[in-house]
TrEMBL record:
One of its GO terms (molecular function) is kinase activity. The keyword Kinase applies. The lineage of its organism: Bacteria, Pseudomonadati, Pseudomonadota, Gammaproteobacteria, Lysobacterales. Residues 15-133, 142-268 form the Response regulatory domain. Keywords: Kinase, Phosphoprotein, Transferase. The keyword Transferase applies. GO terms for biological process: phosphorelay signal transduction system. CDD domains: REC (cd00156). It comes from the Bacteria. This is Histidine kinase. Pfam families: Response_reg. The modification 4-aspartylphosphate is found at D198.
Amino acid sequence: MQAQILKHLISETPRVLVVDGSRLVRKLIADVLKRQLPQVQVLSCASIAEAQAVLEQGDVDLVTTSLALPDGDGLALARLVRQQAGRRYVPVIVVSGDAQEHLEQRRFSDDVTDYFDKALGHEALAAFITGYVQPQTIAGARVLYIEDSRVVAEATKRMLERQQLKVLHVLTAEEAFALLTADSLGTSAERIDLVLTDVTLKGELNGRDVVERVRVDFGYSKRELPVLVMTGDTNAYNQATLLQAGANDLVIKPIEERLLITKVLFQLRLSRLAVPAAIL
């Protein structure tokens, strides 16, 4: 079965707006984009004012921005992009050295699609951008999926299996721990590559417990075993506690297939990269 293609950028010659006060950073990001998309048109801007002038000239397909800009911040730029795009889907990616701190403290607005931490390195940045240009599947990667609703689980499994991922679905955290124990002892036939869990589960344990057990009891780092948590809780504090407990990222409900797949495939690719040197 061929993986379903999920294109974020429909155009074969996409216009990508790169906004950063540093000329070096803009060049590095542009080089990454051009390596992934030879036909890309990179629109490089140093400020919100320059970006606004570009946006007034026509649509863009993807935006990357620094958090700190000479005349404002990346969140203000994200709002500007949303106003210009209307209902059209335009990913807005924050590329920053302190993005993780902002994420954990839930400082990002709904106008930001995703974030990238510069400390992950050049190759991770390339993998990240590729995920928004054209998610590349990792056929056969094994996802341990914890969800107590069979209806929700079936729909989400189909999304993942369309990307040729192997999905091992369990209903409770306890079942998941049994499988993780076998995996850590080397008695499982196949290793688990990523854990995807709902935050609310039947029984005494929930998604946060899953994250904490994976990080503390099993001792897996974020690179060794990525954990994504699905949540419909909009409370910023509750979301922050999941990330601080060791979740790699959150998937906000209701689930949007394109973003779920992007996040899953990015974490799988990142886990396969060598430990990076910090960029910039």
